[in-house]
Structures are given as C-alpha cells and as structure tokens.
Write a structure and sequence with these properties.
single chain; 196 residues; alpha+beta; FomD barrel-like fold; seven-stranded mixed β-barrel; 4 helices; globular
Amino acid sequence: MGAVWGRHTYHILLHPPTVLQILPRLIHYYYTRPGKETTNYDYWLVVDDLDLKVLLMEQYEGRPIQIDGVTIAERGSPMLWFVFPGVWHDIGRFHLADNSFTGWYTNLCTPLQINQDVWASTDLFPDHWMVADGHQTWLDEDELANAIQTGLLDEATQTLIDGERSRVQTELDRGTWPTPITVELDLQATRGLLKG
C-alpha cells in the first residue's frame, strides 16, 4: 500500500515485518523550550516512513500566532508537521481556522526521540517563516542570543544550530526550500490519508 508525491513513495511500514503499524494513530508529542515549559501536543500520525513522519493536528488550541502583525494560525486552525528523523529541523504547514493556507514554518529543533506513541524534541530557538508568495523571514534570533548569553546552550549546540541555519539558508538562496514533499502534500491530501 503506497502513495507517491514527486520522487517519494510513502507507505505503511512493518516494524518488525510481522507487526502491522496501524495508521493513523494518535501521537503524544512533548516539546521542550529551554528555560520554559514542556508542552504536550496530540497529533494524528498519517505517514510513518523511515525518513519522514507526517503529523496532523485538526484543531490548534493555543493563542493566535502572528508574524509582523499578520495571523498565521489561530484557535481552531489545522496544522501539518513534517518531521524528519535524525534531522535538526521540522517543517509545518500552517492554516487559519477556515483551512486557508498561510505558509511554511521551519522549526530548528533536536532530532526526534520516539518511544512508541510518545515523542519528544527540544526547541533550538531560530525559526523560519515563508508565505506562499515567497516572502520570508528568520524568527526568534533574539531568543537565541539570550540563550547563549545566559548559558542555556552550550558551545557544541550553538555550532549545530549555526550549521543547520546555514544549510536551510543555502536551500532558500537556491530556491529549493521548503522541502518538496511539504509543498506537494497539502491539507486536503493529508486528510484523505487520515480517512484511509
């Protein structure tokens, strides 16, 4: 059983081969912001591949998220997250409550930790926002500077953040960001996977 987007084929995996992983299934995702609280988000896992996990939240329940005075997500908004195991970022597709797409949110974070249906990651401060028309901006760099100044981040982690930010910026400069699967697999297609 599989679905193809671009050059990628995504399918239900067998882990181990004799045990079927039933999709979708509910994931409890614990996200830690250094110096702040750990938050639990519940998502539906709709794609479970070795190098890609796709998570759907049907209704965001937090405060409205705004960038430069423009709301990019609000209470009741669906959210899609594309998580790449072993990689120091994930990418979200954000929407308003009426399902209208607002853009791609790249979140620098530690590689995903998986313990069955309990997942965890830690925020690394810098984020990137890109709207559909190509306008883009880096976010939270002041928080990164403060984390370095106050000792929340060690030198090795700072080096990893700098390298990942540079890699993302290189892809932006080439016009190859965000990752193609995050463009091709939209909310409607993901809901189709959720329904089976």
